[in-house]
C-alpha cells in the first residue's frame, strides 16, 4: 500500500480508512495526518466511491494529536507550518464521511470524529477535549464543532475541565447519532455507509452540502440555499428514476447522473 499509518480498503462503493498506529493509540502524527487527508482526497475524487468510513481500533479511534511530536515545537514553527491547517482539505471533501468510533476519541481524535459527517459509536467510546491538561487548547476545530454539537454548557465543561464523556452522555448531547455494541461496530457502520453509497452520489453530496450550510449561514439564507439545490435535483436523471421507481413500486437504479 502507498500508506504506512493507515489502511485503505475498498468495500464495494465504500472506502474504508482505518487509523493504524496501534502502539500510540492512533495518535495523529504528521505522517498519519498527511495519509488520512491524502486517502480521503483520493476516495473523494473516485467516482466508484459513494461513501467513506473512517475508523480506528477497538481500544482507540485516536488518542489525540501526537503529543511527543508536538512537545518540542516553538510558536514560530507551528505558526510557520500552520499546524493542523491540512484538515481544511478533509472538511472540503464532498463524499459523505461516517466515523465509526470505539474506545478513546480524545483531543484531535474527538476533533477528527467531528470532522466526519456523523459519528456511529461503540458502547466503549469515550470523547473528550483534554488539551487544557497539556497547557494548550483544541486546535482542529474542537472548540467550535463540539459547541455546535452539544451546546455551550457541555462544551465549556469539556474544554475547561478536560473530562471525558461516555457514549450515553455523548448520544444524549447529540454528539453521536447511534450507539452499537462494540463487537458489531464495524459491520453496522459498514451497513450504514453502504446504504449511503447506494443513493445517488450527486444527490447525497447536495444533501451533505445543504446540512453543512446550516452551520455557516442564517436560517433564511440556508432555507433559500436548500430550495435552490432542491430545485436543481430535478435536473438529474436520478430524480426521474427515484420518483418513477416509487410510482412503479420497484427499487430505484441510480446512475449518479
Ligand atoms: C502521543 C500517545 C498519545 C498521544 C497515547 N499515546 N496518547 N502518544 N500522543 N496523544 C501513547 C502513550 O504515550 C503510550 O506510548 C501508548 O500510546 C499507550 O498509551 P498509555 O497512556 O500507556 O495507555 P493507557 O494507560 O491505557 O491510557 C490511555 C489514554 C492516555 C487515557 C488515552 O494514553 C492519554 O491520556 N493519552 C493522551 C490523551 C490526550 O491528552 N489527548 C489530547 C492530545 S492534544 P508508550 O510508548 O509510552 O507506551 C491534542 C491537541 C490537538 O489532541 C490540537 C491542539 C494542540
Automatic annotation (TrEMBL):
Its EC number is 4.2.1.17. GO terms for molecular function: 3-hydroxyacyl-CoA dehydratase activity. The keyword Metal-binding does not apply. The keyword Iron does not apply. PROSITE patterns: ENOYL_COA_HYDRATASE. One of its GO terms (biological process) is fatty acid beta-oxidation. InterPro entries: ClpP/crotonase-like_dom_sf, Enoyl-CoA_hyd/isom_CS, Enoyl-CoA_hydra/iso, Enoyl-CoA_hydra_C. Belongs to the enoyl-CoA hydratase/isomerase family. This is Probable enoyl-CoA hydratase echA8. It comes from Rhodococcus spelaei.
